[in-house]
Design goal:
about 260 residues; mainly alpha; four-stranded mixed sheet; 11 helices; about 5% strand
């Protein structure tokens, strides 16, 4: 068993957490893809018309993962299920939360804009033609060193209402504030792509609609990565990372989801 008191174990613990973080990202992608199935097809239709071999393999993999992580959860100190909201959010509360989120996103955009830099020519080449040249010219990026985006001040109030699963800002790879993408960790092709997807969502939906959709969906799902805005970003990221992925337009994908009211 590892121990922080043993200097020789610290490197192994760091490697373990790096691998855990990678596994979490892959799990989020899988969860988001499954969530999209849930939104579009009933369980009966999947059971009747889905390929039996794929369904069986999916069920077996999910069951094995559930059993594995459940065994770990039992060993986590003070592990417990997230509490439910103490009372349903009223429309007044929803609108207040939308306003707070909009103000936060706008303020953070202004806060980081002056230290942000344009994408390099190499980064633009990697991201084209998934994104338009105009979008790639407009977006700015910041890679933080020795610091992370702080937790929003309004979190405590909403945690008091029972929402314990709000996005862990400090532990996210990146956060997109309109046209500024801030990275808590070293930029990779995949995390850059993810941040740019959100920039496209902001451009097409607009700040106010984005905030309204995010708050209302989060109030229903109570999980950050189950919010369609985030689920779509993870889904497109997974598609981008595919070994034989064909080029596609993120803007077209986002416009289609907006048109079909899937956000």
């Amino acid at each position: 068993m590892y121990s922080w008191d043993n200097p020789g174990d610290r490197v192994s613990i760091a490697e373990m957490n790096s691998e855990l973080q990678h596994a979490q990202l892959e799990l989020l992608s899988a969860h988001c893809a499954s969530h999209q199935l849930r939104l579009r097809y009933t369980a009966d239709d999947l059971a009747r018309f889905g390929r039996r071999d794929i369904l069986r393999k999916s069920v077996q993999a999910a069951a094995a993962l559930s059993e594995y992580y459940a065994s770990i959860e039992k060993k986590i100190p003070d592990a417990g299920a997230a509490s439910e909201p103490l009372a349903p959010l009223t429309e007044e509360r929803i609108l207040e939360a939308v306003q707070r989120l909009s103000s936060y996103l706008r303020q953070q955009r202004e806060n980081y804009f002056h230290s942000a830099a344009p994408l390099s020519n190499h980064q633009k080449a990697l991201m084209w033609p998934y994104f338009s040249a105009a979008m790639l010219d407009r977006v700015r990026i910041v890679e933080l060193e020795g610091s992370r985006v702080p937790t929003p001040t309004f979190y405590e109030e909403y945690k008091a209402l029972g929402f314990q699963n709000m996005p862990e800002v400090k532990h996210m790879h990146s956060l997109t504030f309109l046209d500024v993408v801030v990275f808590n960790e070293k930029i990779t092709e995949r995390t850059l792509f993810h941040g740019l997807v959100h920039a496209v969502q902001f451009e097409i939906l607009g700040l106010d609609r984005y905030a309204d959709l995010f708050v209302r969906r989060f109030a229903n799902t109570k999980l950050h990565f189950s919010v369609p805005l985030e689920a779509h970003a993870f889904s497109l990221e997974s598609k981008f990372a595919g070994t034989h992925a064909a080029r596609f337009s993120v803007e077209d994908e986002v416009r289609l989801w907006a048109k079909q009211a899937r956000y």
